[in-house]
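Lab notebook page, bench 4
Experiment: in silico fold of construct C2
Operator: M.H.
Input chain length: 192 residues
Purpose: comparison with the prior construct
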Amino acid sequence: GAARALGQVGGGVAGPCCVDASGSWATGVVGNGRRLMVATSFTMVVAGLLGSSFLAGGERELTFAYLVAFSGVGVNAVLAPYLYALQALSLFQWNLVRLSQPILNLVAVIVWYLAAPFTVLAASICLLISYTMQLLFAYASGRRAMLETTGTASVTAGDLLSLGLKQASSAAQQGLAGDLNRIVRYQVGEHA
């Protein structure tokens, strides 16, 4: 939630805004977006890895679930800029890529449930697998869409930060509130 929002530096909004309809800025947006997100996400991943045991209250399985979740922030940093650019380049392909994640997650959950006990850690792993697959689909579709475009316009990291930080500050607050809500519900035993 909040860690991903901060690690993205608002890339989910800044990326599509900076990629114009012709896609001429796509390569610059993806490259600069990835550089920004890797730098900020690294901090989130390290903080998450160091704080996982604390967040889990020392519970071993929940600690590993947090470790899996925070590793997803790193995967997101490397591949999500393609998803953002794809939204501006081809809304149809973007929708297909976005649709793949819940379907893949459902398949992973069913397979895991039939093969082994389904736990919080299993749910985290299934989610990470499905999200990573979605981002790999976005990478393949985004690269293909960018290769089909031409142009010489560029976008700087400053352009992305200018738009992205405004969105990230709002998204981080919403994500943190949701994360805290889930932690409190887990601690009181609802496991929702």
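Observations: Residues 157-187 form the longest helix (31 residues). The two ends are 16 Å apart (CA to CA).
Next step: discuss at group meeting.
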